[in-house]
Amino acid sequence: MSASAILIPLALSIISGALSASDARKRLAAAPQNNGVAQIETRFNDASLLVKTLNEHGIQTFVESENRIITQFAEGRITYIRASEGAPFIMEVSEVGDIQCLLDELETIETEYQGNVQSYTYERVVNNLPDGMTIESEQVLDDNSIVITLNVE
Asked: What is the pLDDT of residues 42-74, one digit of tens each?
């Protein structure tokens, strides 16, 4: 007997609730009226994958705790904070320079983070198959979703 598991692109499956680019732009533009700080909701909820992504992107990070990560971008300082482990981070952006450049950088980081989450999920599925299950086939589709067909003995 076979069963299939589909790991869909995380751009579609990560929790909803993050701001659109236009809303983020408005908050960044309003930062000077808010003590120079803009708060922006994110889809990042795994601290270790966030730090990994930032480091891979060449952004120096300082991890104060599992719930507070400080970074310095060329176009702004970002502190990622959250209320509790597993909750999504909120970015507190300050020292904003070029807003469009910062938004482009953040979009790239979000895409890289999503790829890291998908890789992590794939590895967990493949490396933790229960006894009696083997991989029959794997296929990466055009939309980057992964179809894993498992053999169940």
From this structure: 889 999 999 999 999 999 899 999 999 999 988
Tell me the backbone φ, ψ of residue 12, rounded to 5 degrees: -95, -25
Rounded to whole angstroms, the Cα distance separating 49 from 10 reads: 13
Per-residue b/e over 115-144, b at no fewer than 16 CB within 10 Å? bbbbeeeeeeeeeeeeeeeeeeeeeeeeee
Q: CA torsion angle for 9, 10, 14, 16 (degrees, to 10)?
A: -60
- Whether the pTM exceeds 0.90: the reply is no
List all residues 6 or more positions away from 135 whose beta carbon is below 8 Å from its beta carbon.
Answer: 126, 129, 148, 149, 150, 151
